[in-house]
Amino acid sequence: MAVHRYRAHTLASTSIALALLLAGVLPAARAVEPAVRASRTTIPDFYAKAYRSDAFHWPGVTPSPANGLPMARYPGFGLQWNYVTVALYGLQRWSDWRYHRGGSTARAAAIKAADFLVGRQGPDGAWRYAFPFTYDDDDAISESLPAGWIAAQAQGNAISLLTRMYAATGDGRYLTAAIRGLQPLTRTVGDGGLAFTLDGHRLLAGYPTSTPSLTLEDYELALIGVADLAAYSEQAQVLLSALLPSFYWSLALYTSPTGMPYYDLAQDFAPMAGGDIDPTSAQACAEALRALLAGYPSTSGASALAAWTIALKTLGLND
């Protein structure tokens, strides 16, 4: 989660959009989504291949002198803890231990990351960043947040790691912290959380900005975390049941006329915004949606995924 993300402004041809519409692939705007009841259903392991990446190879990431976990360097702020980076590092090492050849060394690294997240979590369930941050989508939203901000992806990634480490070790501290991590997803942005209501639907903002930063990839990764935890927690099941119908409903808004998913919904809150499309993020969004649909089917969700898949292939990208 960088201070600024690259995204390409892409305009696909009218013929592509028309073909999608005629094929019935593009979802109808603001369709009513049937209720989705979450249970102990599990979704495919979204992080099974996380071992293929290494957080220490990312720009600006270096081991902490204190504990060896990855820290990120930010201009003007030096080395800082980024909870997304730490959680993804833990998921990489867990994946290496569980699916690859990492052995006890990888398992120990995953445990170290999980222990760190348990220790750094606030009493309100949030992982709060100690440095200021500017959310800038290059289009409609540019807002600075003071130190103490939270992020949907950080909550989701941390919950995903802690859930896995609870399953692997039986250590109740991880389950307790994962469940506590749901709290910011239940509070509105105005009340110190990340929830936002649009047309009567409860969505999740990527960041607590005053202009809604409904960043799709971050939104999905938060839901992945809740879905992972739902296998072990009734609280997570209840929350997922409340969030999924609104998420599936929102996918019509996230799907551009070309079939590609928008990066966020800035265009819905700023009339002059044209809608950002980031092909790399779009691929990740399609993968996350596919995982959620495998556990919790949805007609509108499947329609959006079909549109995204066709659009990605048109651009020569594998979704």
Write the layout of secondary structure elements.
Elements: H1 14-22, E1 61-63, E2 70-74, E3 78-80, H2 83-99, H3 103-120, E4 133-136, E5 142-145, H4 152-169, H5 172-180, H6 183-186, E6 195-198, E7 201-204, H7 216-230, H8 234-254, H9 279-295, H10 299-314
Antiparallel strand pairs: 1-2, 2-3, 4-5, 6-7
Helix pairs in contact: 2-3, 2-4, 3-4, 4-5, 4-7, 7-8, 7-9, 9-10
Descriptors:
mainly alpha, disordered N terminus, two-stranded antiparallel sheet, 8% strand, 10 helices, 319 residues, 45% helix, 3-stranded antiparallel β-sheet, Glycosyltransferase
What can you tell me about this protein's structure?
This protein has one domain: Glycosyltransferase (Alpha/alpha barrel). The strands form three sheets. Strands 1-2-3 form a three-stranded antiparallel sheet, covered by helices on one side. Strands 4-5 form a two-stranded antiparallel sheet. Strands 6-7 form a two-stranded antiparallel sheet. The protein is mainly α. The protein has helices at residues 14-22, 83-99, 103-120, 152-169, 172-180, 183-186, 216-230, 234-254, 279-295, 299-314, and strands spanning 61-63, 70-74, 78-80, 133-136, 142-145, 195-198, 201-204. Helix content is 45%, strand content 8%.
> How would you state the average pLDDT, rounded?
86
Helicity level:
40-55%
- Please report which band the strand proportion falls in: under 5%, 5-15%, 15-25%, 25-35%, 35-45% or over 45%: 5-15%
Cα distance, first to last residue?
A: 21 Å
**Which strands sit side by side, in order, in the main sheet?**
1-2-3
H/E topology pattern = HEEEHHEEHHHEEHHHH
In CATH, the architecture is: Alpha/alpha barrel
Uncertain spans: 1-34
Please tell me how large the radius of gyration is. 19 Å
Strand count, sense and barrel status of the largest sheet are: 3 strands, antiparallel
Shape: globular
- Which fold name corresponds to the CATH topology? Glycosyltransferase
How many separate domains make up the residues?
Answer: 1
Please report the first level of CATH classification, the CATH class. Answer: Mainly Alpha
Number of helices: 10
